[in-house]
Amino acid sequence: QFNDKLPLFIFAWGLDPLKAVNKTSYNQAIQTLNHHREDIIYNNASVVIWVSPIVYADLSEMAPDFMDWHTFVDFSFSDEIPYLIKQEQHYRQLLTDPDLPLILRQDFDNQLRSVRQRLKQIRIRKNASQYEYDVFIHYAVEDYSFASNLAYHLRLRALSVYFDWDYPEDGVNPQQYDEAIENSKKMISVWSPSYFDQPSVLEIAVRFVNTNHEIRTMNRPYIPILFRQCTPSPLFNQIPIIDFTNEDDFYIQLYNVIRALDIDTPFLDMDTSFMEYQAEGIDLYATNHSNQFINDIGKIFASLGFFVKRNVTFQDEHIDLLIEQKSIVMSVQFVVKCFTSFVDVAEFDQIVSLKKQSMYQYIVVSLKRVCSKMCFPFLKNKTLNV
């Protein structure tokens, strides 16, 4: 069906509901997937298959060498970690009440210690390495609200985060910062004007960059996050940053942070509402250029290893979604045009016109069909990816 032209990747989901509805079609789908997998792999196309443990078992039974398909990533889901983190946040909030009776304060403090001890046990069990923490988050006190929110979301995804709330009473002294850096696999700096205006804050990042020889490698031990527009020190030139200046892009950039950390987590907390809207009969994508749809497509590309940016302007053109594939040798950027309705000839001609004037490659994603003019003749000429 691809007419000898394979896409960059294939994203397949829906095998689970198909098994419940039509067992024959389900078996045929698995057989077809297994039959054509070598053709796909040898043509350098990446295949992403979203399956439950039950479907995975069926695939493994049919193809015992299933685990040999290049890279298999297991996204397992855990209820305990997010529950414990929410409990920790709850008790910390209760303990901030200055009028809390002493007996309740002692009880809540004991509960908080118990929750933290359990989280530490999970963290130690998960981290069979030289590091106790996955990441240390460093920031100016003025940016505490953003930094604590970032730490909370990373911990929800089972990443062990060294953050100031580990020392809620005494604060963090310079010696504890040294311990944080020594015991953390990577470091995140929250960049803002306040961060660079305070020498005592900036000193920690400068020392880390100067003493780490892999700072500009693909390993990325140092990950700067741009929270507010500022002018960084020249020392940080050519270090890739992740842009959080647009609040609407928080979750897309969060996936970029998780990818940059490059750490296996026991579960991934994804919003799958975009997969369920048809079954529920709810139109989450009410407009042709729905922000919800664009965000969902952005999440998919981010989970596939692309850097994702929203609301970019280039040569007076507004770009809803810009993705970038980086390597040591080069980087390639794509404009992703997202449509929730049929893409007609007029829209196609407009996209081709933009493509001729642009430095970017274009990818068109539609929930429904695209006009015949957009199909294979143009794909062969690499005018557009559809």
From TrEMBL:
Pfam families: TIR_2
Top-level lineage group: Bacteria
One GO BP: signal transduction
InterPro entries tied to this protein: TIR_dom, Toll_tir_struct_dom_sf
TIR domain segment(s): 131-258
SUPFAM superfamilies: Toll/Interleukin receptor TIR domain (SSF52200)
Protein name: TIR domain-containing protein
Source species: Candidatus Magnetoglobus multicellularis str. Araruama
